[in-house]
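Example (one chain per record):
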Amino acid sequence: MAKYAGDPSPYPRGWDRKRTQAVIDHYENQTDDDAIAEADAAYKSDTSAMIQVPLELVGEVEKLIAKRAG
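Predicted structure:
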């Protein structure tokens, strides 16, 4: 995980050990049916899109997303 200037935390801004553990617990305890339903819901989202990107372009896409979020 990236560190931010002046921040000794190994977590991204807004995250900590407790929040990270909650996400881990969620996925470790999720049933197969719940996982399928979650994936299906992600593909039907009105606020984001799932796209396939060639592996050699993933880094460039990540940079564009970071720049936009910046």
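Caption: The radius of gyration is 16 Å.
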